[in-house]
Design brief:
- The complex is a heterodimer of chains A (322) and B (271).
- Chain A has 322 residues and is mainly α.
- Chain A has one domain (4-18, 37-317): Orthogonal Bundle (ABC transporter involved in vitamin B12 uptake, BtuC), CATH 1.10.3470.
- Chain A is 70% helix and 1% strand.
- In chain A, strands 1-2 form a two-stranded antiparallel ribbon.
- In chain A, α3 (33-56) packs across α10 (244-257), α4 packs antiparallel against α5 (88-110) and α8 (186-204) runs antiparallel to α9.
- Chain A is globular, with a radius of gyration of 20 Å.
- Chain A starts with 7 loop residues before the first helix and ends in a 14-residue tail after the last helix.
- Chain B folds into two domains: 1-81 and 167-271, Rossmann fold, CATH 3.40.50; 97-166, no CATH class.
- Chain B is built from nine helices and ten strands.
- Residues 252-271 of chain B have low confidence and may be disordered.
- Chains A and B meet through α7, α8 and α9 of A and α2 and α3 of B.
């Protein structure tokens, strides 16, 4: 571990984290404030993707509804703010607890199924939450709701873009740290073992369902945190933040970056947003108006990754040591 | 006669119109090796799956170590000391041999809701795991990925995993399946070492192995237990000879030619 940074993977990761750590300074020097907003979104989405990776990558539970936790974290903040409870000390724990509780409910139901059924049932629950959000006329319905940002009076002003970015980055580091411990912990090994062969794990004496449910709840809680950050980033909540397209994007990010790897979701989030931002102008160079259809170029790229780079971006740095 | 460790009483299991387990009663006494034999499709694996909890019997009861376990889930039965190996090799393929056994040790080392400490450096798991590997003769292969092990080694790894929890009863579903003669003999020698110490319910097609190892034999045909007794009694039983059409049940006195049959087909009904 001590020499990990000497490998190409380690070096790239250290450099990447360094750049991310000083991003607000860089964007200020080069006067690219817009990049900071993209950077913030990358960091928040990376947290969500890491949380999805905990169940999808390490546990083999392909949840196609993970964006619902964006919604739950976001709406917890938005609804409380709407009613005059502006303190982040109340909003944030409420958002995380709400996401964890909801994860417990749908996990208890959906983890009884496997494979395609699990994908479908998580999608169904996400759609349920989506339409619930769209039906909340008091909180903007379909149009969403402008909210004021969470207050951490005297500590932090989230309206300041750089402070907010650094808060998100610190939380990303915390999430990465947790995930790195989780992966090789007793709990993580049970989850990974169950992905490999759940019949065997049961025969060894592990109550697999219980551990999977706990992982699902954990993942939902981190997903809720990402939703809280997302709501604060735009000072806005809407059902769109939990549409099934966002859930799909999260899966794409995890697969693109490398399932079951620590930094894969972060690489994936960076690649995803870089392509989303750069492909439209590039295509517009070819012919005006093509940029709108950037996903036509993005789709085949995903196919190529799925076919030829099964380990995602992470695998480009060579084989991992266990 | 000692109190049986495991006793199944009049188990019945139906799959649609098929009576896969037809009122079978079977027991295993402490320290004995009880072999379960029968032609393909006799319902051996179905019976074992009910004992392990992978299948629920339609009626009947199962007692283990003085408790009614008929309705206990699989993992709880394992915790009570009922371990199994699978007919089709079942190891964690992406993990090393040592990781496999370490997880088996972990399964019996309290709950696993521990999220931060590195389990791969936890000597309370690794040391017994290394010991377990050494016991089955796989010490040299500790860091080899399970997929890279030979078939025979994987079977031994399974045994090491089953033994990790120090079970009082081992359910071995064709431990010699797919093994060569030499590997089989190694496994037989290994299992014989447990005789009198650990109770075993052994399902095996290899009649050499069965008659070398078993204290008692139960013969299952079309879901019914048609006979149960010592190897000598079973050998002499006319019904059993009938069921096997006299082919390979009676091995020559010296353990020469193998009574091996092709494994598997039609024998697995675990949902």
């Amino acid at each position: 571990m001590r020499t990990a940074w000497r490998t190409p993977r380690g070096l790239a990761t250290v450099l990447l984290l360094l750049v991310l750590a000083v991003l607000p300074l860089l964007t200020q020097v080069f006067d690219q404030r817009y990049l900071l907003s993209i950077g913030t979104r990358i960091v928040i989405w990376a947290i969500a993707a890491i949380s999805l990776n905990m169940i999808l990558g390490y546990g083999g539970m392909v949840s196609f509804g993970h964006a619902m936790f964006f919604g739950i974290g976001g709406y917890a903040v938005g609804i409380l703010a709407h009613h005059g409870i502006a303190s982040g000390w109340i909003q944030w724990p409420a958002g995380i607890v709400a996401a964890a509780l909801w994860a417990a409910v749908i996990g208890a139901l959906s983890l009884r199924t496997r494979g395609l059924y699990f994908i479908m049932i998580t999608l169904a629950f996400a759609q349920l939450v989506y339409y619930l959000g769209a039906g909340l006329e008091a909180y903007g319905g379909d149009d969403g709701l402008n909210i004021s940002r969470s207050r951490f009076t005297g500590l932090l002003d989230l309206r300041d873009k750089a402070s907010f970015y650094w808060l998100c980055f610190a939380l990303l580091c915390g999430t990465l740290w947790f995930c790195s411990r989780f992966a090789n912990s007793r709990f993580g090994l049970v989850i990974r073992g169950a992905k490999s062969n759940d019949l065997r794990m049961t025969a060894l004496g592990f109550p697999v369902f219980r551990y999977r449910l706990a992982a699902f709840i954990l993942s939902g809680a981190f997903g809720g945190l990402a939703g809280i950050l997302l709501a604060n980033e735009g000072a806005y909540i809407s059902p769109a933040m939990m549409s099934w397209v966002k859930s799909g994007d999260l899966i794409v990010i995890v697969v693109l970056g490398g399932m079951g790897t620590l930094f894969g979701p972060l690489y994936g989030a960076i690649a995803f947003f870089a392509l989303e931002e750069s492909l439209p102008p590039l295509l517009d160079l070819g012919r005006k108006g093509w940029g709108e259809y950037w996903q036509i170029a993005f789709g085949p790229m995903l196919v190529l990754v799925a076919l030829y780079a099964k380990g995602g971006i992470d695998s480009l740095f060579g084989r991992r040591h266990a | 006669m000692p109190e049986p460790l495991l006793s199944a009483d009049r188990l019945i299991k139906r799959f649609g119109g098929l009576l896969a387990t037809d009122s079978v009663s079977i027991d295993v006494r402490p320290g004995e090796i009880h072999a379960l034999i029968g032609p393909n499709g006799a319902g051996k694996t179905t019976l074992v799956s009910q004992l392990t909890g992978n299948l629920r019997p339609d009626s009947g009861t199962i007692h283990f170590a003085g408790r009614d376990i008929t309705h206990l889930p699989t993992h709880a039965r394992v915790r009570l000391g009922l371990a199994r190996s699978f007919q089709i090799t079942s190891v964690l393929r992406e993990f090393t041999a040592l990781d496999n056994v370490a997880l088996a040790v972990q399964a019996h080392a309290g709950h696993s809701f521990r999220f931060l400490a590195d389990a791969c450096r936890d000597e309370t798991l690794r040391r017994p795991a290394r010991q377990g590997l050494a016991e089955v003769g796989l010490a040299q292969r500790a860091d080899t990925q399970a997929t890279a092990l030979s078939h025979g080694e994987q079977r031994l790894l399974e045994i090491a995993m089953a033994l990790a929890g120090d079970p009082i009863l081992l359910l071995l579903d064709e431990p010699m399946a797919g093994m060569g003669a030499e590997e089989s003999q190694r496994m037989i020698g290994f299992l014989r070492g447990f005789k009198g110490k650990r109770a075993m319910l052994l399902i095996e097609h290899d009649m050499d192995a069965v008659f070398q190892l078993a204290d008692r034999i139960t013969v299952l045909v079309y879901g019914r237990a048609i006979a149960s007794g010592t190897p000598e009694e079973i050998r002499a039983n006319p019904d059993v000879r009938q069921a096997y059409l006299g082919d390979d049940l009676v091995p020559p006195p010296s353990y020469g030619g193998g009574g091996r049959r092709p494994e598997g087909e039609g024998d697995t009904k675990n949902s």
